[in-house]
TrEMBL record:
Protein's GO biological process: DNA-templated transcription
Domain BZIP: 119-161
Keywords associated with the record: Coiled coil, DNA-binding, Nucleus, Transcription, Transcription regulation
Residue runs in coiled coils: 140-167
GO cellular component: nucleus
The species this protein was found in: Adiantum capillus-veneris
Gene3D superfamilies the record matches: 1.20.5.170
Domain of life of the native organism: Eukaryota
GO MF term list: DNA-binding transcription factor activity; sequence-specific DNA binding
Record's protein name: Uncharacterized protein
Subcellular locations according to the entry: Nucleus
Domain DOG1: 184-397
Family, per entry: Belongs to the bZIP family.
Length: 400
């Protein structure tokens, strides 16, 4: 459909709005030209008014016939033919421009719709990516929480195993804790507390050595470490008097520690071999003093070991010759009383071994400088901590 417009020709304007009105507009304009050319005296307005009158029968062709045969009429017909062609050309051009405009508008609308569709897809994809990232973060958070919960449960199981082990729950021994002597149960609890305090002391020593604190402050920490071992020997002394077998068997220790036990504790000579590399560099005097201490400790250990072997041999002989025949009940009871007396000697051996361990630590502390003593205590503590960790891994190992 052609849009409405206007055309100016020879000073006279005529308008058209649709294709159906082109011929009427052209005739009106043609009549106006004819009247201006052929009837100047009558007047254009008079003729037009007469033609527009309801009873008028004048038409465009009648006006043309009025001037038929005249030269002016011929010229007018030529002029009207040119005007008709020009008018038709202008109409077609307007129609083509409108169709092009409609095509452009249509293409623009389609492009706009495609852009909307593309934008909606991008927005939907971005929303999906955000949702996937959120779910991934939630899964990661849940996984970390699960790992943390598993770690806490593992620590609780390890602590429970240590507590049961220290309480005497092992193969070949009754698992009923209430059968133990109250003094033994108290020792197990005190030893667990001692281990926790030992770990705290090791952390202080390590921090002090790394921070290069003053020797006076470091000396105080080292003295606290030696005093802490003195407390352990005091606890063991009380427990030996209650149940020496509990201390000698090492049920208050972890399985890995029990493998290296000697008479209810560590061998002083072996401990010196372990920490000696951590004490270097040593002066010549320090080296000689440590070697002498190691030899004396080894000799004392050998003497105690020989006494323990002799005690075991005597107990074996006494128990092997005891008879429970009814006629020899008195003899049997006498032999068992003798064996009980030998066990009192076992208590003395354990107490002497603890005294040797305690004296070795004090003598070593006097030989070393403050920083060497701190490194020595740290090496001893780390050694036993690794043994306890090894035991925990062994207990928690997968079994087929």
């Amino acid at each position: 459909m052609v849009a409405a417009g206007s055309v100016q020709s020879g000073g006279t304007n005529f308008s058209f709005s649709k294709a159906s009105r082109r011929e009427e507009d052209f005739q009106s304009h043609g009549i106006s030209l004819i009247c201006e050319i052929l009837f100047p005296k009558i007047g254009l307005q008079a003729i037009l008014q007469h033609m527009q009158h309801p009873n008028s029968k004048w038409t465009f062709n009648q006006v043309i016939l009025l001037s038929h045969g005249s030269t002016a009429a011929l010229d007018l017909q030529k002029h009207l033919q040119v005007l008709r062609e020009k008018y038709t050309s202008i109409g077609y051009k307007l129609h083509e421009n409108q169709e092009k405009a409609e095509v452009v508008i249509g293409e623009s609308s389609v492009g706009h719709e495609l852009a909307k569709i593309s934008d909606s897809k991008v927005l939907r994809r971005l929303a999906q990516n955000r949702e996937a990232a959120r779910k991934s973060r939630l899964r990661k958070k849940a996984y970390v929480q699960q790992l943390e919960t598993s770690r806490v449960k593992l620590n609780q199981l390890e602590q429970e195993l240590d507590r049961l082990r220290q309480a005497g729950c092992h193969a070949g021994v009754s698992s009923r804790v209430d059968q133990r002597h109250p003094g033994v149960a108290a020792f197990d609890m005190e030893y667990s507390r001692w281990v926790e305090e030992q770990n705290q002391l090791l952390c202080k020593l390590r921090t002090a050595l790394m921070g290069n604190v003053a020797d006076t402050d470091l000396h105080m920490i080292v003295d606290n470490g030696i005093t802490h071992y003195d407390d352990l020997f005091r606890l063991k002394s009380n427990a030996v008097k209650v149940d020496v077998f509990h201390i000698v068997s090492g049920m208050w220790k972890t399985p890995a520690e029990r493998c290296f036990m000697w008479m209810g504790g560590f061998r002083p000579s072996d401990l010196l071999k372990i920490i000696l590399p951590q004490l270097e560099p040593l002066s010549e005097q320090q080296t000689l003093a440590i070697c002498s201490l190691q030899q004396s400790s080894q000799q004392a250990e050998d003497a105690l070991s020989q006494g323990m072997e002799a005690l075991q041999q005597n107990l074996a002989e006494i128990l092997s010759t005891a008879s429970i025949v009814a006629s020899n009940v008195a003899n049997y009871m006498g032999q068992m009383a003798m064996a009980m007396g030998k066990l009192g000697t076992l208590e003395n051996f354990v107490l002497q071994a603890d005294n040797l361990r305690q004296q070795t630590l004090h003598q070593l502390n006097r030989i070393l400088t403050t920083r060497q003593g701190a490194r020595g205590l740290l090496a001893i503590g780390d050694y036993f901590s690794r043994l306890r960790a090894l035991s925990s891994l062994w207990v928690a190992r997968p079994r087929e």
